[in-house]
Every structure is written in structure tokens, then in C-alpha cells.
Design goal:
mainly alpha, 6 helices, about 80% helix
Length: about 160
């Protein structure tokens, strides 16, 4: 029975990474599902309070990673406040349109059009759109790193502490 539960836990962890490419999949929830499967079906009470506090903080950081990276890079590359906002919404919309490519194409195009509407030059709009792309990619890398940290911490708690 434990083997089946471990297979489900691993599947949850894998699904959490799929959620980075397909934001429609709640990757963070999948990660937490893996933790909770372990706690409720294998060993309750084995994970430390420090673990749970750290996981909550890292989860908040996971949610913030996309927003912070996207906003930062759109702004850094000359985008307007509207460009930043549109990039955030377009990431969500893009996950539903031609997945997984929509998550890259839709924000890029939306920021480009938004900047042009605001009377920016084509070059300025292009740069802001590029900032959106770089923001998405760097946010995704940050999420991978954070999720790997969370999984490693979980495994250390389970097998070595």
C-alpha cells in the first residue's frame, strides 16, 4: 500500500512541474497534495513544524515569482504600468489558448499591442514585449528552483531526520 501512495506522491511532484508550463494545472496544489498524502496516509506528525512554516513561506514565494518577475522585466524593458498589468492577465489567458505556446505568445503580443495603443514606438513596444517574455522565463526558472527546494526538503525530512 505504501508503494502505491509513494507513486501518487511522485506523480503529484511531477504534476507540479507540469503546472509551470501549463498554468491551468495547479502545480502548487499538486506539490502540497504530495506532502499531505504522505502525512495522512503514511506517517502523520512526522514532518516538523519548521518544515510546514518553510513550505508556507516558499509557497507564497512561488505565487509571487511570476508576478514579480513579469512586472520587473516589463518595467525594466521600458513597459508601462498597463503593459505590466496586461502581461499578468495575458499569462493566464495564454494558458487556455494554444497551450503551452499561448503562455509565451499571448503575453508577448498583448504587451506589444498595449504599448502601441499607448503611443509607444514599435521599438519601445517590442522591448516591453521582450521584457514580458524574459519575465515569464525567469519566473518559471525561479518556480522550478523553489519547487526543487521544497521537494528536497521534504525528502530530507522523511528519510534523514
Amino acid at each position: 500500500m505504501d508503494l502505491l501512495i509513494w507513486i501518487l506522491i511522485i506523480a503529484c511532484f511531477v504534476l507540479s512541474f507540469v503546472g509551470i508550463v501549463f498554468p491551468i494545472i495547479p502545480g502548487t496544489l499538486a506539490l502540497w497534495a504530495g506532502f499531505l498524502l504522505y502525512v495522512f496516509l503514511i506517517h502523520s506528525g512526522e514532518l516538523s513544524v519548521i518544515f510546514w512554516i518553510a513550505m508556507v513561506l516558499l509557497t507564497i514565494l512561488l505565487f509571487a515569482a511570476d508576478l514579480i518577475a513579469n512586472s520587473y522585466y516589463v518595467k525594466k524593458y521600458g513597459g508601462s504600468k498597463w503593459g505590466e498589468r496586461v502581461a499578468g492577465v495575458a499569462v493566464i489567458v495564454g494558458s487556455f489558448i494554444i497551450p503551452p505556446f499561448g503562455i509565451i505568445i499571448i503575453p508577448f503580443a498583448a504587451v506589444f499591442v498595449t504599448e502601441l495603443i499607448q503611443k509607444r514606438t514599435t521599438q519601445e513596444a517590442w522591448k516591453a514585449s521582450l521584457g514580458s517574455l524574459i519575465g515569464f522565463l525567469s519566473g518559471s526558472v525561479a518556480k522550478v528552483v523553489i519547487q526543487v527546494m521544497m521537494i528536497i526538503w521534504f525528502l530530507v525530512e522523511v528519510f534523514w531526520l
